[in-house]
Write a structure and sequence with these properties.
Chain lengths: 347, 266
């Protein structure tokens, strides 16, 4: 038991170190190359500690605080939210292939957000988009849940087919909005479909931060019950879990996290698939550790992906969703294969 | 735990009164009344599709009875608080699946979940070790559950049920996937739990095992209770022949043990 505990601590420490490294790297590289001392200096200065590292150049300070820092914060939060949403979905579906992007929750949320953009729906600044994204995401999650489950289990085939149907429907909705929308909103919607961290603003970051913290806290609180749920719904019930309530709360948690992630940066697929799977391989399936490390791992993955997105092609900002799908697609094939060869994978 | 209740033999640990279940328009159970006292093993037997598992799921509350009532320690099942019920009663279902690769020890420790945050939780480790030993799976404790054989999974699930340390235990075909020795071991555990004051309900196929280990036997036949009572009273060749549709011999054990029930083979 203590060996596993030590391993947990080691993984968390490594993830935090990787994460901090990623944040620093992400702050330094880009169109304007900053020195690490500029970054540390301006952060210290904002905390009221004046050092000789603080950049004298106002352009550097502005670039860091107005463009780069919100972008980094957004990648951290979105990565964490998507990875935790993936871990929770897998827990309630009892299926390691469930993921917000794959089963259509992300496109549902994107459709909601697109409706907000095209119709110009606002409610307290950035929250209007997030709210409609939540409505769309919740609708999609409920639909997948009730379509793909039978006798308390979710079959892989039904799950994926339901995902195809929802993705197709949301895709048609998005296409229609593209058709009726004006040029500005069209451009925004196209970027969503690709997923990008470009142009993240602090007020959006604040919304996503609230959503991610609340959703992750709820998931951690429910973690013990997710462990019991893996014994099957009946047995979880016999162990005192109120399965029906757990499901509903979890569906809302998934929708909230996914909507928060999708509302401002668009669809970034496979984070919720790859990260929980890796963490499960490292630490085993117990959900408390899984959710905590997925949160860190998801954040790290997107910070590094964003660095790649900004630097891979000089002078261009690649869509981050393109990168995660490039990594996630083949990984998904691998998971499908191993699920198929394992007994009951297709059952 | 609740020794006061155990002593009170007038209130059955578990009672299903006049229970009926319909699926579509087909009656799965009609008018079944059974009960089990603390300190007793009740065996539910009958042919495939007779309604044994349905009756068990009505007793656990997983399936609502269309008619009739189910009581746990004299209290209607619906009135029980979720957590209290989990501390009073443990259930082994036939599905032995675990969605993620938890280790055997993790799975057994999950049986302790209802006691979390209570003084009894101090006994978690002892309960888990005892359950692992009793079901002969201690050597598998670090293995991943999905990698086990059918019989091993069944024993680990039983260990989880034992670790829950409840006064009432319901077991749906606990011997189905087991070899000869482990079948006897499992029924020995059921017997031993009953001696410790628990009420045990067990669904069985092997009539000789039922006759050997149960205090009372309920024989179901197409959803109706064909007989309910002492093994020596209900295990008759005529009744079994009628229920199972095959000629049966009830043989006396040469060493004076419980009767052996075998089909007539010519």
């Amino acid at each position: 038991m203590s060996r596993l505990h030590r391993r947990h601590v080691a993984v968390v420490v490594i993830l935090v170190a990787v994460l901090i490294g990623g944040v620093l790297l992400s702050a330094v590289v880009g169109q304007l190359t900053m020195s690490p001392t500029d970054v540390v200096g301006t952060v210290l200065q904002s905390m009221g500690i004046h050092t000789s590292w603080a950049p004298a150049d106002d352009v550097t300070v502005q670039a860091l605080w107005q463009i780069r820092f919100p972008r980094i914060a957004m990648s951290l939060l979105v990565g964490a939210a998507l990875a935790v949403a993936g871990a929770v979905m897998q827990a309630i579906f009892g299926n390691p292939l469930a993921e917000p992007g794959v089963v259509g929750v992300s496109s549902g949320a994107a459709l909601g957000a697109a409706v907000a953009i095209v119709t110009g729906f606002t409610l307290g600044g950035a929250t209007g988009i997030a709210l409609l994204a939540f409505v769309g995401g919740l609708g999609a999650t409920l639909l997948v849940y009730f379509m793909a489950r039978s006798n308390g289990r979710t079959e892989v085939v039904t799950l994926l087919l339901t995902g195809i149907a929802i993705n197709a429907f949301a895709g048609a909705g998005l296409a229609m909005l593209l058709f009726v929308g004006d040029t500005a909103s069209r451009e925004q919607i196209v970027f969503w479909q690709l997923g990008t961290m470009n142009g993240s603003r602090w007020n959006e970051v604040a919304v996503v931060a609230v959503v991610t913290v609340l959703g992750t806290a709820a998931a951690l609180y429910l973690a013990k019950q997710y462990d019991l749920l893996s014994l099957g719904e009946r047995t979880a019930g016999h162990l005192g879990v109120r399965v029906e309530r757990l499901r509903i709360v979890s569906i809302v948690v998934v929708a909230v996290l996914t909507a928060g992630a999708v509302a401002f940066v668009g669809i970034i697929a496979f984070v919720g698939l790859v990260i929980p799977h890796l963490m499960r391989m490292l630490l085993g399936p117990a959900h408390r550790g899984l959710i905590l490390t997925s949160c860190l791992g998801g954040a790290a993955l997107l910070v590094y992906s964003d660095v790649l997105a900004r630097t891979l092609v000089t002078g261009a900002d690649l869509p981050i969703g393109l990168l995660t799908s490039l990594i996630g697609g083949p990984f998904f094939f691998y998971l499908l294969r191993s699920a198929r060869t394992k007994a009951g994978g297709w059952a | 735990m609740s020794s006061a209740r155990r002593m009170d033999t007038s209130v059955p640990a578990l009672r299903a009164a006049d229970v009926s279940v319909e699926l579509g328009h087909k009656a799965i159970l009609s008018g079944v009344t059974v009960e089990v006292q603390h300190g007793e093993v009740l065996a539910l037997v009958g042919p495939n599709g007779a309604g044994k598992s349905t009756l068990l799921s009505v007793l656990t509350g997983d399936r609502a009875a269309g008619q009739g009532r189910v009581q746990v320690d004299g209290e209607d099942l619906a009135h029980w608080h979720h957590g209290d019920l989990a501390r009073r009663r443990a259930v082994l279902t036939q599905e032995n699946q675990v969605s993620f690769p938890f280790t055997v020890r993790d799975v057994v420790a999950m049986g302790r979940a209802p006691w979390q945050g209570r003084p009894e939780a101090d006994g978690d480790d002892v309960a888990v070790e005892a359950a692992l030993a009793a079901t002969d799976v201690a050597h598998l404790s670090e293995r991943s559950f999905p990698s086990l054989s059918g019989g091993e999974k069944a024993r680990v699930s039983l260990a989880r049920v034992l670790a829950q340390q409840t006064d009432i235990v319901l077991l749906d075909e606990p011997t189905a996937a087991l070899d000869l020795r482990h079948q006897e071991d499992v029924m020995g555990i059921a017997r031993e739990r009953a001696s410790a004051g628990c009420a045990v309900v067990v669904v069985l196929h092997d009539l000789s095992i039922a006759a050997a280990y149960a205090d009372s036997i309920a024989i179901l036949d197409r959803g109706v209770l064909a007989a309910f009572g002492d093994p020596s009273d209900v295990m008759t060749a005529e009744l079994l022949e009628r229920v199972y549709g095959i000629a049966v011999r009830v043989l006396d054990d040469p060493d004076g043990g419980s009767p052996v029930i075998v089909p007539v083979r010519r």
